[in-house]
Amino acid sequence: MDTPTTPPKLAMAAILMLFMIDAMGIGLMMPVMPSLIQEVTGEDISHAAVWGGILTTSFAIMQFACAPTIGAISDVLGRRSVLIVSLIVMCVDYLVMAVAGTIWLLVLLRLISGVTSANFAVGSAFIADISPPEKRAANFGLMGAGFGIGFVLGPIMGGMLSVYGTRAPFYAAAALTAINILFIYFVLPETVKKRSFEWPKWEKINPLSAFKIVLQHRQLRLILTIILLNEISFIVYPAVWSFFTIERFAWTPSQVGMSLALFGICMAVVQAVVIRVYLKYLGEVKTVVVGLSVNVVVFSIMTFLETGWIALVLIPLSAMGAVILPPLKAIMSKQTPDDAQGALLGVVSSTSSVGAIFGPLIATFSFRMFTGDDAITYLPGIPFAVSALMMVISLFLIARINRTPS
User: Fold this and answer.
1) May I ask the CATH architecture of the domain 8-186+206-398?
2) Distance between CA 404 and CA 406 in Å, rounded?
3) Is pLDDT at 192 greater than 80 in this prediction?
4) Residue 264 burial by CB count (10 A; 0-12/13-18/19+): exposed, middle or buried?
5) What is d(CA 348, CA 211) in angstroms, rounded to the nearest whole number?
6) Rounded mean pLDDT of 351-355?
7) pLDDT tens string 67-125
8) Rounded to whole angstroms, how far apart are CA atoms 176 and 277?
9) Sign (positive or negative) of CA dihedral 254, 258, 261, 263
10) Is this prediction's pTM over 0.85?
11) Is 1 in contact with 184 (CB distance < 8 Å)?
């Protein structure tokens, strides 16, 4: 497969387009997934929600298991080839979902989707390949911005397409993925120059081996712990935001959707623009401290909040959490050899997936305990208190990074 010669800025635009279209494909499904589950199971919305949780967990588990492996394979076989193959499988996966008639087939397809979506690690490694060390944090922020834009546009498009049936968004997602394949094939350059085109050894692709290598370094262990706590904390928004705002403020589904769109827009702005200013004047570690500190305050207020418009005002501040992950990834990337960037960022992606597995359980279980007739005490905002506590712990850990030997 020939590699196109691409200017650095166009190469960056290509990989950001990959992230945005990937996110749009996922977001397209969100508005119709409950109806699709009801359609294939014949059950009510309550039982459909249980299956929705199973589908989400299946996706996250496969991302966790496969991201280090796919990242390590890309270190050997090349980023571009791995991305193209994963996207072809993803496109087929969407097309089969569009005609799936049983819930078990949907579960299988979400497992496959989790594997293909682990190409997030490969895209991250590509950015590390083409970015000078001093610009990696800012460019990782652009990656997040691309995802943010996709997650804003995807659900909106999915809602609009739902008038044509529950299957229409899946065909649209497949079409977007096909466009992504063509864009990468014709535009994206290969950044791994020494390729053997031989299947890598088991020690290289074993996800546990990748974790073992990274966890040998104390600084990297600290940073991975912070990443895990941050992911669990921040997933409070997709996990319980709709339940919380309906319970506490009596918001309509439309209001909930608009608030989530606002959150996605603010996240994209923070990752594309604000983070660069912070990195320029504060550096990587202090930028993380600011992001954690702002969210400790926001989550603490959310815990006891009783006024809906204040929650909307706090959304731009809560989006400051988007400045946390890119500099942490940049710090880790600088401490890792160039030929292990894919494996490293695969470990980071898997760590984030652990948060996606356990975060919703923590948030929804705590919400359940503090709402309803049998509640310990009525406090719907308790999931935000749990998130604030995890970010306080992260602040203590980030303070140790500079003075802890690697």
Assistant:
1) Up-down Bundle (1.20)
2) 6
3) no
4) buried
5) 9
6) 78
7) 777 877 887 778 888 889 989 998 999 999 889 889 899 989 989 988 888 777 788 78
8) 33
9) negative
10) no
11) no
Tokens of 74: 């890309």
Would you say 343 and 75 are in contact if contact means Cβ atoms under 8 Å apart? Answer: yes
Q: How far apart are CA 4 and CA 341, in angstroms?
A: 22
Instruction: For residues 4 and 14, give the distance between their C-alpha atoms in angstroms, rounded to a whole number.
Output: 12
User: Would the pLDDT of 243 be above 90?
Assistant: no
**Residue ranges of domains in the chain:** 8-186+206-398
Residue 390: partners with Cβ closer than 8 Å, 6 or more residues away? 229, 230, 232, 233
* φ, ψ at 370 (rounded to 5°): -115, 20
Residue count of the chain, please give it: 406
CA separation for the pair 99, 106 (Å, rounded): 10
Cα–Cα distance measured from residue 102 to residue 53, given in angstroms and rounded to the nearest whole number: 16
> What is the DSSP code (8-state) at residue 270?
I
Annotate 125-158 with b (16+ C-beta within 10 A) or e (fewer).
Answer: bbbbbbbeeeebbbbbbbbbbbbbbbbbbbbbbb
Which amino acid, residue 296?
V
Angle (deg, nearest 10), helices 168-187 and 79-97: 160
Residues 406, 335: contact at Cβ < 8 Å?
A: yes
The 10s digit of each residue's pLDDT in 129-174 is 888 777 777 777 777 777 777 877 777 777 778 778 888 888 988 9
Scan for tokens 């249980």, then name that residue.
50
Where does the pLDDT of residue 284 fall: very low under 50, low under 70, confident under 90, or very high at 90 and above?
Answer: confident
Nearest to 233 by CA among 330, 293, 299: 299
Contact at 8 Å (CB) between 330 and 276? Answer: no
Q: What pLDDT digit, counting tens, does each position of 4-61 carry?
A: 555 567 777 778 877 887 777 777 776 677 678 778 888 754 456 567 667 777 887 8
The pLDDT-based confidence of 337 (bands split at 50, 70, 90) is: low
What one-character-per-residue DSSP string does 275-309 give? HHHHHHHHHHHHHHHHHHHHHHHHHHHHHH---HH
Instruction: Compute the chain's Rg from CA coordinates.
Output: 21
